[in-house]
Amino acid sequence: MSHRFCVAPMIDVTNRHCRFFFRKFSQHSRLYTEMIVADAITHGDKDFLLGFDEVEHPVALQLAGSEPVLLANAAVIGEQYGYDEINLNIGCPSKRVQAGNFGACLMADPGLVAECVERIKEKVKIPVTIKCRIGIDDYNPGEMLPEFIETLAKSGVSTFIIHARKAMLEGLDPKQNREIPPLDYDMVRMIKRRWPELNIILNGGLMTPYIAKNEISASKGIELDGVMIGRAVMENPYSIIDVDKIFYGDNKIMPSRFKIAEEMVHYLEVCVKKGVPINITTNNMLGLFHGCRGAKIWRSYLSHEAPRRREDPRVLSEAINLVVEAQNEAA
Ligand SMILES: Cc1cc2nc3c(=O)[nH]c(=O)nc-3n(C[C@H](O)[C@H](O)[C@H](O)COP(=O)(O)O)c2cc1C
User: Fold this and answer.
1) CB atoms < 10 A from the CB of 45, how many?
2) Residue 18 appears among annotated catalytic residues
3) For the chain, does the N or the C end have fewer beta carbons within 10 angstroms?
């Protein structure tokens, strides 16, 4: 199971259509679902929540919850759907999540998280991993994080994705909680130093795969096992086009932005036949030409036209033509 490069779970972003699109940029990276509350899986529309395309592998299902039996049920269903990993969200700071006793607040209760993990592991064969913060609120990360890791490692977790900043559960909203408490990569390195046998994956503020690779290299004091990137992929998905080369040593020739866009036209045609509006997918494609000539017209055409012509995949072909024209004009 390789976590050398992971694309972060992001609510309202990393749905199956987004993951299908992201897979075009890298065959090997590990993709994560949005956080799904365990209860929703047990009682909700399972195909809608869990369905995915085979090309998405390796793909992890991220669960939120704190009730061991409910989590274990949801994990079993996830395994039946074919997910490669169950990941527990112990990092989300939102008020709604706290009210349900999920997410980052659980860092203060490693015993309960361990119980959840043990119950899940009794029921599924796929790996169970954890995504957490370095700490919460006024707790000292230097004490809280090692205690958390030690307890969970004993319950059989061997892969931890650590968002290298504290979560402040009072006074900051989730967006602020991804910016304000400062990043502390050394805290993550300290964990790897202490538990070299664990897979420790660094997350938070990594702007490109090259920067990320450097940040986890031995030159920084100790080598970490992988990285996870969220917002930078969302804003500029083509920025991960070299990931297979730099993280997995796979030197195959990767597709151009235009090739990817054209392949997505076919995907939209298939989606429309299944009743999925095109804008669900095109919303995730707005950053494809980030930094290129034509990026603005691409973004504005898709943002404007796709919600109006939700069953018309030609919108995407038209947007491609506009970028071609913009680039030809400049040449
Ligand atoms: C729009 C958005 C939604 C997110 N949703 C989730 C989520 O569902 N589960 C989770 O563990 N983290 C979630 N996060 C946090 C990211 O997974 C990641 O930990 C965080 O953005 C830091 O990484 P980055 O600096 O590379 O973006 C979300 C972040 C964003 C921007």
Assistant:
1) 10
2) no
3) C
* Burial (CB count within 10 angstroms: exposed 0-12, middle 13-18, buried 19+), residue 28: middle
C-alpha of 85 from chain center: 13
330: how many CB neighbours lie within 10 A of its CB?
8
- Element holding 6 (H helix, E strand): strand 5-7
The rounded Å distance from CA 324 to ligand 1 centre is 33
**Ligand 1 geometric centre to CA of 10 (Å):** 5
Average of per-residue pLDDT values in the chain: 96
How far apart, in whole angstroms, are the C-alpha atoms of residue 26 and residue 106? 33
Give the distance (Å) from ligand 1 centre to CA of residue 35. Answer: 9
Alpha carbon separation from 170 to 84, 137, 165, 167, 216 (Å, rounded):
34, 8, 15, 9, 31
Contact between 156 and 121 (Cβ < 8 Å): yes
pTM: 0.97
Domain 5-248 architecture: Alpha-Beta Barrel (3.20)
- Tell me the per-residue pLDDT of 80-108, one tens digit each, with 9 for 90 and over: 999 999 999 999 988 888 888 889 999 99
Architecture of domain 257-330: Up-down Bundle (1.20)
What per-residue confidence (pLDDT) applies to 180? Answer: 86
Q: In the chain, where are the structural domains located?
A: 5-248, 257-330
- What residue's CA is closest to ligand 1, atom 5? 10
Q: Rounded CA gap, 88 and 97, in Å?
A: 13
Upstream peptide bond of 58 is cis (omega within 30 degrees of 0): yes
Count CB-CB contacts under 10 A for residue 131: 26
